[in-house]
Amino acid sequence: MSKDAILGAIRRGLKRGPLPADQRAMLEGRLATHPRHLIPQRSRLPRPEQVTLFVKNVEKEFGTVARVASAAEVPGAVADYLAQQNLAPRFVLAPNDELAALPWAEKPLLEFEARRAQPTDTVSVQHGFAAIAETGTLMLPSDPQRPTTLNLLAETEIVVLRASRIVGAYEEAWDRLRAERTDPVTGGFMPRNVMLVTGPSRSADIEQTLELGAHGPRRLHIVLVDDDPAALPEA
Question: What is the pTM of this model?
Answer without folding.
Answer: 0.85
